[in-house]
Amino acid sequence: MLPIVGNIIYSGNAILSGVVSMLATKLPAGWQSKPARVSKRDTAECGSVDMVLKIRRPGMPAGLVLVAARARLEPRGVDYLAAVLRCTQKRPVLIAAPFISPRTQERLRACGFAYADLTGNVWLSLSEPGLFIETMGADENPEPDRRGRKSLKGPKAGRIVRALCDFRPPIRLRELARRSGVDPGYTSRVVDYLNREALITRSRRGPVVSVDWPALLKRWSQEYSPFQRKRVMMCLAPRGVAAAIERLKILTLRFAVSGSWAAVQLAPVAPTRLLLVYADQPMALVEGMDLRPTEAGANVAVAVPFDPVVYERTSRKDGINVVAPSQIVADLLTSPGRGPNEADALIAWMGEHEELWRA
Question: Per CATH, which fold does 4-135 belong to?
Fold first, then answer.
């Protein structure tokens, strides 16, 4: 039986021929590529591959790329490939598939694999002849498999992400559901998805035993942002962020601060230019802080929380209620300007001080 991806049936030969044809269009002018059979030596040295691709620069000996086709490849599957296929600098192994997700691409590169898919995602490096190709294709599978969960959209998924980051593993499924306030069935589907994405590791029908929390927060930030137009008000504090913080200290409204000001309280990053404040009553907060709504030049963002979890596991910094570090990172990753760089600095600090923020 031929493998099925989404609604399309792919044979190994169809994947190989499609990827070889596509790669030929990516080569520099005058270069040539030609498929060849796999020898016993290739199998002995590198494992079970499907094709040898010879890439030749005019007047130079051909470089060899070993190609292994997969009808479907999820991030967790890269661990198996790394165990059975051996890459070398002179004989790189290229993984060919109908579609390779950004997370899977990241894991393939980390394990030393090249890759190419039928949507145009390509990463290939050859030392002889010197060649480097990197092109971008689809971010999402144009023919997705209908089975299972495939996103982290919505407040319930966000609560599960926060719990996985904020509490040290091991953590059992029912405990995770209780800590996140989400029903066990939904929690199980999200955990299965995160396990397939290699963002967590779960023992068979057992607890979550490890969490790649930096990668998990970055994955969450692709579908979550406090800066959604209907949930945030961009404002100007005429006297600057420091004066706005002093106004916050005397307000009795429920609020929590995130973003770069919160990050500075933990890790040495650049001076704050945008203050992010979560508030249940945004207009009352704007009036209490004497802010001016504006379309340009804003230094304060007042956001309605996507979920009350933003008020959980907070801390007091300089007399201000500050969201949990995991929430700060997610918010910075979606912030304008240098927010993502500030997130990286905070992630580095968190990696060195897990005992200070993970329960």
Answer: Trna Endonuclease; Chain: A, domain 1 (3.40.1350)
